[in-house]
Amino acid sequence: MSSGRRANALARLGLTGPRAEEILTTLGWWADDKPAPGAENVMWALARSPDPNLALRAVDRLAGADARTWKNCDAALRRDVVLRGRLFALLGGSTALGDHLVTHPDRWRRLTAAAPDPCTDVATRTATLLAAVGADPAAPLAGAEGGAAAAVTDSEAVHALRTAYRDDMLALAAADLAAVSEPSLPILPLEDVAAQLADLATAALRAALAVALAEADGAADPGRLAVIAMGKTGGAELNYVSDVDVVFVAEPADAGTTRLASRMMRIAGEACFPVDANLRPEGRQGALVRTLDGHVAYYKRWAKTWEFQALLKARPVAGDPELGKAYAEAVAPMVWTAAGRPDFVADVQAMRRRVEEHVRPDHADRELKLGRGGLRDVEFAVQLLQLVHGRADPALRSPTTLDALAALASGGYVGRDDGANLAASYRFLRLLEHRLQLHRMRRTHLLPAEDDTDALRWLARSAKLRADGRHDAVGVLLEEWRRNSRRVRRLHEKLFYRPLLDAASRVSAAGLSAEAATVRLGALGWVSPEGALHHLRALTGGVSRAASIQKALLPVLLDELARTPDPDRGLLAYRRVSEALATTPWYLRLLRDEGLVAERLMRLLGTSALVPDLLVRAPEVLRLLAAPVTGQRDELIRDPANAAATLRTAVGRQPDPHAAATTARSARRHEMLRIACADLLGKMDVEQVCSGLSAVWAAVLQGVLASALRALGGATPPARLTVIAMGRLGGSELGYGSDADVLFVCEPLDGASDHEAAKFATTVVETVRRQLGSASPDPALVIDADLRPEGRSGPLVRTLTSYREYYARWSEAWETQALLRARPVAGDMDLGRRFIELVDPIRYPDDGLSPTSVTEIRRIKARVDAERLPRGADRATHTKLGHGGLADVEWTVQLLQLQHAGDIPEMRTTATLEGLREAAEADLITHDDAEELAAGWMMATRARNAIMLVRGKPGDQLPRSGRELAAVATAMGYPPDGDPGVFLDDYRRATRRARAVVERVFYGW
């Protein structure tokens, strides 16, 4: 046979290494370019190894280590199917255990059919490891009174324990992998392997403690010490490579027991695995050992929810058995009452956030453990349900994830199909985790990158995945990984909420009871679980198509709602919206088909009271929540000028002022809701929000005013009319609840008198105000003209001549300051331009302000601060009149404008932030001071807007605590499940710094 044909023959067996034929020939397994007689079964088992080339190289090393031993092994391989399966699967699946076998070649006998069962009980494993270090297996365990010490210490003990531990690991891993190379051999269930690994770790801890006791070398009696396993060891579900979490209980907890525990950790760490005691009370800062009373006192007074979650898996495994049992009995009642703690919900949300934060972004799509749809999702969900329902049902108190999941399904706490599917995915993900760790005996949870086909092929084969009709082995692995990850993500949502819907609709008497459903809703964040269950019944009741869609949607929606600051209000709002849009055919279909729409809607409803109020009357905005089509702009973000033009066009088509105002309110509602959604979703900054709202308000005035002029003025109106924006409207800084401060200016036409012009203009203005101010559930459209000459006592509309005379004779300092924001926004723009020309010399005086005028402005500001702050308000957190708030910053900018805008044209702006930038550029204030003032103004403006979004009504005072404060913080962009105190601290810091600048620049202190 040619060399090419020989290579092809070997390649079909997966043997492509450069020395494959040479090694096989030397071993006597290959002759005449085919398997040698009697070696056919050996070759086929080798070919089915996870990595035949790796296995063959290890066999070559094993044969060279001890010729006589290899001769016996080779003979056994030809007749023993168990040995073939175990040996080749092990050598092709784990380089580290292959190295151990090469170092100890006689250990091949542990892999034969005649060898003791590698899946044995913990007592047998303990006896083996104790014997390895010379301790008496029949004596009491080290740590108890009269406990047996090892006969060897130090490096000799570490070496002996390491070798014995690896021997047991070798046999277990070989049995676990054997079916890969020999399909006729049984497949060990994942949970059996994990339990065996936990037993092996238990035996190692006991042996390490015996060595530690021997190293005490006749010191004083160290006392009683119990080792409590936590985490996966405590749950009897350990990985091949993992830290072993422990807690120590001692009587007494003194220097002797502390040294004993420390030595045990060191010995076990050097010989077998790292021992981690960080789950002890106070973590790394706490004492390594505590008495039983010390543990109980800590858990009663100081422990957090996550510590009780960790105690779910607490199990005494080594040391004094009586002391360990007493510990378990003492802490168990506290575990099963943890769900009733007042901070349980906040702690659970924080735990979920910590899990997500531990994932590196570049590893998120390959993380078996911490990624979305990973192992931690399953474990977290099961543990949370255990904490919630385990108090009333002892059947749920297993420390093992799969056993607990089965109990939850059996008890109706999760759907049986959901429980079974979740368990299957969990087993698959754990299998991949085990295989990855076995390869080099390293702790890892990360799948190989998709371009690393060799590593993926090895993993697929070691997991016994083979090519199908559509994919090769790598494709099958990736498809199965994605399918199971998606299933875990989907079931993670259903696991919590599907049984709630069944309980709400009473579809099964055997499912979750109403009482259990309310307990779960309370644990998931609902303050009024009975009310939430009532809403669920209303949404899913009946047999309509809408009810069926709601049942499919709600597990996902409720999971999103639970992450918001106020799930109760959010669920009520969702019910209101769903009932209001019940006859809208596309509503539920949009939520079902566009996952991003559903996710965003829940975030909005669980945060804002304004959004649902607007949404029931502007449902078309829901469509804008969908992800933008690739290459197209996001419909949530529009240019303010385009939005205003669209509004004016729609209003301009209406035949009368009433229809025009109705259309204007509808368009304003649409735009306000669009801006609110973009704001809450973090798609617009504060300047864009204010500019957008101001443009909408201006367009409303323009459209309705034009309609009123057409209706009342006919072909030849007696006057022209313009609207001058003042205050926040003039600065394009309107918030969601701001009034529109304006002045109305008219001018006679065609020989009409000033009186006739003013009378006509007043009629038009009153019509506009009446139409826009008519009853509406939307936020009020208030036109405020109180900044006009003589205030409320003065005429609503004046002619341009009247304004000129008034400002020349009677104008006061506050009116001059108010004119700094004046700009025309509606009506006759030429008249508006001439009004601006009239007031420019007044508001931008050439000679600036006299010291007397500066003092007067400061006096007015002090009086406003003292008299207008509401009783009981907190000046530190009042967004308008508080220290460093809106008024502080705006008055400071306006004082600088009055003093310098006459000489510096760039200061002639109506916008606060632009005024600050220009003041810094002109060196009127430092850039640092400008930044501090801008930061305070933006923080206060955003907070004021957030208050309106959350409450649905205007407000200037930040909430002091509670869900409303959390919602305001979320509306400001802080994490919904974070600490709202962080936002309060940031707010106070920004406004405090702004106030310090105000005191220097405005007051001159």
TrEMBL record:
Q: What class of enzyme is it?
A: transferase
GO terms, molecular function: [glutamate-ammonia-ligase] adenylyltransferase activity; [glutamine synthetase]-adenylyl-L-tyrosine phosphorylase activity
Q: Region (Adenylyl removase) spans which residues?
A: 1-500
| Catalytic function, reaction form | [glutamine synthetase]-L-tyrosine + ATP = [glutamine synthetase]-O(4)-(5'-adenylyl)-L-tyrosine + diphosphate; [glutamine synthetase]-O(4)-(5'-adenylyl)-L-tyrosine + phosphate = [glutamine synthetase]-L-tyrosine + ADP
Domain Glutamate-ammonia ligase adenylyltransferase repeated, chain residue ranges per copy: 151-327, 599-835
SUPFAM superfamilies according to UniProt: Nucleotidyltransferase, Nucleotidyltransferase substrate binding subunit/domain
Q: Which UniProt keywords apply?
A: ATP-binding, Magnesium, Multifunctional enzyme, Nucleotide-binding, Nucleotidyltransferase, Transferase
Q: Does the keyword Transferase belong to this entry?
A: yes
**Pfam families reported in the protein's UniProt record:** GlnD_UR_UTase (PF08335), GlnE (PF03710)
What EC number(s) does this enzyme carry? 2.7.7.89, 2.7.7.42
The signal peptide stretch is none
Stretch list, region Adenylyl transferase = 508-1005
Q: What cofactor does this one take?
A: Mg(2+)
Annotated PII-uridylyltransferase/Glutamine-synthetase adenylyltransferase domain residues: 350-496, 860-1002
The protein's matches in PANTHER family, at most eight in alphabetical order, are given as: BIFUNCTIONAL GLUTAMINE SYNTHETASE ADENYLYLTRANSFERASE_ADENYLYL-REMOVING ENZYME, GLUTAMINE SYNTHETASE ADENYLYLTRANSFERASE
User: So what does this one do?
Assistant: Involved in the regulation of glutamine synthetase GlnA, a key enzyme in the process to assimilate ammonia. When cellular nitrogen levels are high, the C-terminal adenylyl transferase (AT) inactivates GlnA by covalent transfer of an adenylyl group from ATP to specific tyrosine residue of GlnA, thus reducing its activity. Conversely, when nitrogen levels are low, the N-terminal adenylyl removase (AR) activates GlnA by removing the adenylyl group by phosphorolysis, increasing its activity.
Q: Which family does it belong to?
A: Belongs to the GlnE family.
Protein's recorded name? Bifunctional glutamine synthetase adenylyltransferase/adenylyl-removing enzyme
State the organism's lineage: Bacteria, Bacillati, Actinomycetota, Actinomycetes, Pseudonocardiales
Identify the coding gene: glnE
